[in-house]
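QA checklist item 7 of 12: single-chain prediction sanity check.
[x] sequence parsed
[x] length recorded as 244
[x] structure emitted
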Amino acid sequence: MADLIFADAELAALYDRMNPGRDDFDFYMPMIVAAASVLDVGCGTGAMLHEARNAGHRGRLCGLDPAPGMLAQARRRTDIEWVLGDLSSVAWSGEFDLIVMTGHAFQVFVEDEELQAALSAIRAALSCDGRFAFETRNPSARAWEAWDTETRGAVDDSDGGKVRVTRKVIAPFDGRVVSFSHIFQSDAWDQPRVSHSTLRFLDKAGLDTALAHAGLMIEAQFGDWDRSPFTEASPEIITIARRA
């Protein structure tokens, strides 16, 4: 997950090492390469847009993220536009043929009001024939049950030390959201670094309604990265939508 928690520049530098082998990148990349202008909302370290340039994309690529530490990593590549902020701080109109939101970033919109504001901003930023592609975890799959005291492994930092990452649920699913912490530990640090997050788990019916209210219509939905059809047991709700 591209957690919007890596404002710390040192942790941001470790993010891609903590999240190798991204199935979501493989899914979205053909759409990105085919689109003339692309906005990546919650772009994090910019890895997906970097990969798109490496794959030969010659059009406009723009990454939007609220975490300075993450964008510091993204800006290692200067032939891509990087914007510090979120959807409430920009006012694009009809500029992008494709908008993507990966790493389950869609789930950070906890309240109905902020979700609708974000979707409205996305619709406004899309060109007439533009598409919005994103995913959210299917609540029926209850992914959070595997998170409590989950060890996410250890990676090397810039000095060759090990940073260990664990995740712990601090407020279980209440029918809408789950709150949890990431704990980062290193023998080189005086104390662990802790980051707290809350994510919303919107079911398919609620998601479809929210999209319709924002003037977006569903073009396709899948239940996993292999493009299998969505079912109640699917781990993901992967959606491609257009302006209605």
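[x] summary fact logged: The CA atoms of residues 140 and 232 lie 6 Å apart.
[ ] second reviewer sign-off
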